[in-house]
Write a structure and sequence with these properties.
Layout (H helix, E strand, L loop, with lengths): L1 E6 L2 E4 L4 E9 L1 H4 L4 E7 L6 E7 L4 E3 L7 E6 L4 E6 L8 E9 L3 E4 L3 E6 L1
Parallel strand pairs: 2-11
Antiparallel strand pairs: 1-3, 3-8, 4-5, 4-9, 5-6, 7-8, 9-10, 9-11
């Protein structure tokens, strides 16, 4: 198993930027078994949705709503995944969650970090 801790959320004006961090911990065996990492978000009354993902091979995928504005990256040396969010909009307001995809379809989640974008 792995443990995920998100940080970097907060209140920001529309057009501003935030960088979210997801610190990954656990056994080396578990950490290096991760197939992909992703950022999800959930707004009040809505289903959790995938925002961005990065695979073990480095391929990335983004929701259409954030393409060109958000960037997912990783620092393998520090076991950290980032989500750089630029040109934020009020509709980006949500709780953002980090996810790790392990073999067998096992998913692990962080506790979430609140992002609020004001107009």
């Amino acid at each position: 198993q792995v443990q995920l801790v998100e940080s970097g959320g907060g209140l920001v004006q529309a057009g501003g930027s935030l960088r979210l961090s997801c610190a990954v911990s656990g056994s080396i065996r578990s950490i290096f078994s991760i197939n992909a990492m992703g950022w999800y978000r959930q707004a009040p009354g809505k289903q959790r949705e995938l925002v961005a993902a990065i695979t073990r091979g480095g391929s990335t995928n983004y929701a259409d709503s954030v393409k060109g504005r958000f960037t997912i990256s990783r620092d393998n040396a520090n076991y950290t995944v980032y989500l750089q969010m630029n040109s934020l909009k009020p509709e980006d307001t949500a709780v953002y969650y980090c996810n790790a995809d392990l073999p067998g379809g096992t998913g692990w989640w962080g506790q979430g970090t609140q992002v609020t974008v004001s107009s």
